[in-house]
Amino acid sequence: MMTFLGIPIQALMGQLLLGLINGASYAVLSLGLALIFGLLNIINFAHGAQYMMGAYIAWMLLAYAGVNYWLALVVAPLAVGLIGVVIERLLLRRLYKLDNLYGLLLTFGLALIIEGLFRQAYGISGQAYQAPRLLQGGINLGFMFLPLYRGWVVLVALAACLAVWAAIEKTRLGALLRAATENPALVRAFGVNVPLLITGTYGFGAALAGFAGVLAAPLYSVNPLMGSNIIIIVFAVVVIGGMGSILGSVLTGFGLGLIEGLTKVFYPEASATVIFVIMAIVLLIKPAGLFGRNA
Asked: Is residue 289 part of a domain?
């Protein structure tokens, strides 16, 4: 059996694949988080709860309505995005002129309420969600066995991240969003509905969290704690990449997933803390993050 530094190649590649899958979740989640912070200046602590809602809505669509995975991949993010729109219009809109701390406290309270409602309804035991038939099984690559669904998650997450980055950085809509963040009065003078842009941005960020939840549903147990278990890591990813940096969040999410996977091979005891150690080092050297801009 082939080895690398005494580690079997199959075990090494398996952990790298696991790291890529975790990195895909980190990237999509941190993308939505960075989008909301970068354009709205809101620290959205409810993002983990919205991720959990996406997974639960997909599960409920299948369990109660027989809606398959492919349709749920569209419907669940839309539902979470609509819930995000309601949250922004009824609650967050009142806090834009206040300190960021108020938005953080409000979204943290919302996360606790949403998690509590799902715990009350379904308990803390996980619900199984089967991968679609088309993506069941795997491919033997010789040096490892690649499950089809895990490969799909990595590819579709990467495609989604690149599409959102291109939309924000390369399109007229993205330019309007950035301009509305910098100078809303000037953009409003050109006849642009700035409040609608802000509402749509928050709804889209929430939909990205729901999309990540649907992707995660067949991989992990669908349970009310899945959002709170991952959101702290995602915040660390955003901080390392640079608060508000879209590209930084995507690259950092995938990169840290790989580092976490390698750590599980060479030093398993540090796998749970390696991301936070990296965050501390980055903040000491470059407080704005790897891709962030200094104030």
From this structure: no
Does residue 274 lie in a domain region?
no
pTM for this entry: 0.91
User: What is the per-residue pLDDT across 49-61, written as a single tens digit (0 to 9) for each?
Assistant: 999 999 999 999 9
Structural domain contains residue 2: no
Residue 266 lies in a domain: no
Angstrom distances, CA of residue 111 to CA of 49, 105, 203: 5, 10, 16
Partners of residue 3 on adjacent β-strands: 8
> Which residue range is the domain that position 124 belongs to?
29-230
Backbone torsions φ then ψ of 139, nearest 5 degrees? -125, 135
pLDDT top residue among 123 and 194: 123
3-state SS, 110-173, equals HHHHHHHHHHHHHCCCCECCCCCHHHCCEEECCCCEEEHHHHHHHHHHHHHHHHHHHHHHHCHH
As for how many domains the chain has, the answer is 1
> What backbone phi and psi angles, to 5 degrees, belong to 171?
-115, 165
